[in-house]
Amino acid sequence: MNNFSHHWPYPFWIAHRGAGKLAPENTLAAFRLGAQFGYRMFECDVKLSSDDVIFLLHDAQLERTTNGQGTAGDLTWSELARLDAGQWHSRAFTGEPLPTLEALAKFCMAGGYFLNIEIKPTPGLERRTGEVVAAQVRQLWSKEAIPPLLTSFEPLALEAAYKVAPELPRGLLLNSWQKDAVSLAQTLQCQAMVCYYDIWNEERVGAVHQAGFKALSYTVNDSKAALHLLQLATDGIITDRVDLFNEATFPLQQ
């Protein structure tokens, strides 16, 4: 598992938060729907409950995507498990719960799906979250399975994940380009750089590839942008548009 930058096992197309905006993000319902659209790899966001259970949620706060209130990481898993994480999206998903990473791992292992786990710590818990996520991923994914790609905007989380499980592949997330981006990814011993799609250009993709990293993009939702990224020879696209892009309708090199 140490040679990921040379042997990249992941599909090109990655479904953002399960199924983009067609289902409540980061719920098992979303991953099931993404799979129905033909996706074999999914992106998700994880953080820690107050009792160190890893669960799926993007925001630090609960209000946008659940019927809860306050900082999600302040609650125990038993409190979080009672929340409705589907009704905000549409009535059809009323009662959909927040899933644990363990539940998503079972779904992925059973279906042979790949996963990109974004470590999205509650502010102040960057190091602890990286440690716990890496330890549990190592435990949940069998040695025969392709493990998830761990990504984060937080260098502390990636550094902590590396120290716990150096064999797991990692990617540095960036929402703007910085002069030391490649050297930072090298310091963190990453295998990929995952950037906001609009900041990629020929020079930056070339520099990333020259350094031995894969170049991935988020969040790409139109064909023109996707074609541009293909022309730049990037290595993966995270998208909300699971209804528009997949290997059959928009085939790219795999």
Can you describe what's shown?
By secondary structure, the protein is of the alpha/beta class. It has a single domain, classed as Phosphatidylinositol (PI) phosphodiesterase (TIM Barrel, Alpha-Beta Barrel), CATH 3.20.20.190. The protein is 29% helix and 17% strand. It has a 9-stranded mixed beta sheet with strand order 1-9-8-7-6-5-4-2-3. Helix 4 packs across helix 5 (155-164).
Strand order within the widest beta sheet: 1-9-8-7-6-5-4-2-3
Estimated structural class = alpha/beta
Number of helices: 8
Rg value: 17 Å
Q: What's the CATH H-level homologous superfamily?
A: Phosphatidylinositol (PI) phosphodiesterase
CATH class: Alpha Beta
**Strand content of the residues, in percent?**
15-25%
Tally the structural domains.
Answer: 1
